[in-house]
Amino acid sequence: MIYQPEGIIYNSPENIDAFENFDSLKLAQKNETILEAIAICCDEHHNLIVSLPNKMKGIIPREEGAIGIKEGTTKDIAMIARVSKPVSFVIKGGIGENFLVLSRRRAQEICYENYISKLAPGDVIPAIVTHFENYGSFVDIGCGTASLIPIDSISVSRISHPRDRFINGQKIFVVVKSINDDGKICLSHKELLGTWLENAEKFKAGETVCGIARSITSYGIFVELKPNLAGLAENKEDVEPGDTVSVFIKSLIPEKMKVKLAIVDSFFNPCKPDPIEYFITKGHISNWRYSPEFCNKVIESNFD
Fold first, then answer.
1. FRET partner for 48 with CA separation of 20 to 30 A, picked from 137, 259, 293, 303?
2. Which of the four pLDDT bands, split at 50, 70 and 90, describes residue 270?
3. Residue 182 and residue 179: Cα distance in Å, rounded?
4. Radius of gyration of the chain (CA)
């Protein structure tokens, strides 16, 4: 079994076939097969009502909604926020009755025992963005298990808020940054977006390209060309953080990791973040060095 963020297996043939008849449902219950369906309601007692194929319905009792609900370490919003979205669960009972009794908590326990607990720093895994805080983005790494990407680990180019980089429900890749003594996993993202040289190779001096003004200082404006590549332009009136700008590339200096720019024009363009270009999407990273080998300034991440 492959353990995935919620929503990935919803339309899979295996998921659909499990609801074909009572025999297939009983087999899924016996094997504790993780299934998915859409949560359509959270009732006044915070039980999740789930719409199942073949016009069946299921109920996830509140205490079965997530690991930590019963113990009080997880807030009920973790369940409420799943309404209108796919949820993972195993079947606990009710086959042949009006409602199947389901457990999202048990699905998370199985996912943790067989997948998440075996992860190590440096492992690259898929995730889905679930919600934002000022300090970072929370993502689902398996069956609704939440993990945090701190804002300074999202990209090398600094952003003011995670929504500058992600949108809710976006499928991304992450790398395990660290694992706490309590088993909680902290993630990183920037190591998957390429080194300085890998990003700089996409640009040439003399080109005029698009960028995003990320921050304005007394000595210039930092313009993001790629999530892991930014350059400095001279100050220009009426440019605000977040503005889209056209910039002339004056020079790229690998030994100093610098890109010198000149802003040609700017305009306010509130739009969704561009699709993310990944350089790494699987496997394991032991060490990642952003800076070129011949650069005195060293920026790197060590995982092992």
1. 137
2. low
3. 8
4. 23
Assign 192 a pLDDT band (cuts: 50, 70, 90): very high
**Contact in structure between 87 and 36 (CB atoms under 8 Å):** yes
Task: Please name the residues in contact with 114: beta carbons below 8 A apart, sequence gap of 6 or more.
Answer: 1, 3
CA distances from 31 to 16, 86, 248 (A): 16, 21, 60
The region of weakest confidence among 10-14, 73-77, 174-178, 249-253 is 73-77
Alpha-carbon span 122 to 196, nearest angstrom: 20
Averaged pLDDT for residues 67-75 = 92
Task: Check whether 1 has a pLDDT greater than 80.
Answer: no
Cα 5–28–113 angle (5° rounding)? 45
3-class secondary-structure state, position 254 = helix
Residues 6 or more apart in contact with residue 52 via CB below 8 angstroms: 19, 37, 58, 100
Question: What span, in angstroms and rounded, lies between the C-alpha atoms of 11 and 3?
Answer: 15
Domains and CATH numbers, the chain: 13-114 (2.40.50.140), 120-194+279-302 (2.40.50.140), 196-267 (2.40.50.140)
